[in-house]
Design goal:
single chain, alpha/beta, Rossmann fold, N-(1-d-carboxylethyl)-l-norvaline Dehydrogenase, domain 2, 2 domains, 8-stranded mixed β-sheet
């Protein structure tokens, strides 16, 4: 099988990991980063020393801060943060080939207008064929060549199959679906719920509380998914339940670590330690969408209120424990 040319937008930990995956069987993969200083360090050191120390870039990966690197790519993997996606796309659009497969690898919802990333791409790059990649995966595991399975979603079944074949390697397996919205809901909601799981850990509430929180958090995710037309099998799959379980139980998750810090009494600045946690930006948009659809999401609402400074962690715990008894759903 011939290999399509690939470029990666975003030179953080996940961008490096996906560039290394894409480099398998390809002579060159462009890895674009916004910050020329960071890109120069990547090119010189051949590793992301801040987020992936000791894990090398594949020799075929070429770091660059020039968006012109996109012009020959048939597949672009967009790994920029969700809240920066529109701005990056606006600047990248003149360099994108017509009909390029644009694969969103960021998990979030645009604040303000509540747009999912596939909608942002459709608006900013209407000639591109959009797809979404999401699932239980940590950048360090992927860079180490540890077995990982994720979901690739595209409305066009043939595109989903083609991209899955182009991007799968021995240790990185892609399962395909046409349920784009279902995959996006799982990726966005699990980040918010992981903050809640981290708070529970930071307050030392115990393993039983942690399990209950994940189960009830998944119920919230499922309710929202149903309201937005997602398929049950998608929500139960890798990009839904799979990613939720991973993110809510590991200190490799930035969202979990943010919550853990908040639970331990740290400020948001102290808890993030300078690392992006998408859930902190997504929480407000997720809650507003749920409210507009009359979907009950008490855990997500608590996370949003805590991040906004309207509620303390202890008050949120008390409020959740005192909710009226009801049938499980």
């Amino acid at each position: 099988m011939s290999r399509d040319t690939v470029a990666v937008l975003g030179a953080g930990a996940w961008g490096v990991a996906l560039a290394n995956v894409a480099a398998q069987g390809r002579a060159q993969v462009a890895l674009w980063g916004r910050d020329p200083t960071h890109v120069a360090a990547l090119a010189h050191d051949r590793e992301n020393k801040r987020h992936l120390p000791g894990l090398s870039l594949d020799p075929a990966v070429r770091p660059t801060s020039d968006l012109a690197c996109l012009q020959y790519a048939k597949i672009v993997l967009a790994v920029t943060p969700a809240q920066a996606m529109r701005d990056v796309l606006h600047n990248a659009r003149p360099h994108l080939a017509k009909g390029v497969a644009f694969v969103v690898c960021a998990k979030g919802i645009e604040r303000g207008d509540h747009k999912f990333m596939s909608e942002v791409v459709a608006e900013e790059a209407p000639d591109a064929h959009v797809a979404v990649l999401s699932g239980p995966s940590f950048a360090a595991d992927v860079c180490r060549g540890l077995p990982t399975a994720v979901t690739l979603a595209a409305a066009d079944e043939k595109l989903a199959q083609h991209l899955s074949e182009q991007l799968s390697v021995r240790h990185f397996r892609l399962y395909r679906t046409t349920d784009v919205r279902g995959v996006e809901i799982g990726g966005a909601a699990k980040n918010v719920l992981a903050i809640a799981a981290g708070m529970a850990a930071g307050r030392s509430l115990g393993a039983s509380a942690q399990a209950a929180l994940i189960a009830r958090g998944f119920a919230e995710l499922t309710r929202l998914g149903r309201a937005l037309g997602a398929r049950q099998e998608t929500l139960m799959g890798l990009s839904g339940l799979g990613d939720l379980v991973l993110t809510c139980g590991s200190e490799q998750s930035r969202n979990f670590m943010l919550g853990q810090g908040l639970g331990a009494g740290k400020t948001i600045t102290e808890a993030t330690q300078g690392k992006l946690a998408e859930g902190a930006f997504t929480a407000r948009a997720l809650v507003e969408i749920a409210q507009a659809l009359d979907v009950d999401m008490p855990i997500s609402q608590s996370v949003d209120a805590i991040i906004a400074g309207r509620l303390s962690v202890d008050a949120a715990i008390d409020a959740l424990l005192m909710r009226p008894l009801r049938a499980e759903s």
